[in-house]
Specification:
It is built from 2 helices and 15 strands. The chain is mainly beta and about 180 residues long. The protein folds into 2 domains: about 80 residues, Beta Barrel (Elongation Factor Tu (Ef-tu), domain 3), CATH 2.40.30.60; about 60 residues, PRC-barrel domain (SH3 type barrels), CATH 2.30.30.240. The N terminus is likely disordered.
Length: about 180
């Protein structure tokens, strides 16, 4: 899971929701090994959180072993899966940890997912909407905000200059909107 370490964390939220850590891929071999695409910063760290679950929380998956195959891909042995057919049945199943399974963020750190749902407001208290996602496609983190009333979402760079304060205790992120966007006039 990605963590950022540049904004002051005022109070850590106590969320009991599921956090997406990876997804099962295709079966590998005939003895039940399966590919796993890990979304954790260190791909092998996906095995450090204990038993994971599917989105519904109905199925539990425990890794018996993990070994690297590529940058984010691992070969995994999953407890209770010993055949190719069993591994094939996992293809596409997303792997979640409960928020409390993750290590607490360090000082001035937080998880991207902790921001989802926060109210976005200006320094003056003007409501901008709610945070619906935080993504990083390689050029820096992007904050997506959905305005109240169902208008189209808008995106802002997630930098100290734009996201000036995160206040979990009050459920908000204070935004200093950029003065102008290049190419608009």
């Amino acid at each position: 899971m990605a963590r950022l370490a540049f904004l002051k964390r005022i109070a850590l939220p106590n969320f009991a929701r599921l956090i997406l850590l990876g997804v099962f891929g295709a079966a590998r071999g005939v003895r039940g090994e399966v590919r796993v695409k890990s979304y954790t910063q260190d791909p092998k760290a996906i095995g450090a959180y204990g038993a994971l679950t599917d989105r519904a929380g109905a199925r539990v998956f425990a890794f018996e072993s993990l070994r690297p195959l590529g940058d984010e891909t691992l070969a995994a042995r999953v407890k209770g899966v010993s055949t190719r057919e069993g591994a094939e049945a996992l293809n596409g199943v997303e792997l979640y940890a409960r928020r409390e399974q993750l290590p607490p963020p360090g000082e001035d750190e937080f998880y991207y997912d902790d921001l989802v749902g926060l109210a976005a407001v200006t320094r003056e208290g003007l409501a901008l909407g709610r945070v619906v996602s935080l993504s990083n496609f390689g050029a820096g983190a992007i904050l997506e905000i959905a305005p109240e009333g169902g208008a189209e979402t808008f995106m802002l760079p997630f930098t100290r200059a734009v996201a000036v304060e995160i206040d979990f205790a009050r459920g908000r992120i204070v935004i200093e909107p950029p003065r102008e966007v290049e190419g608009e006039g």
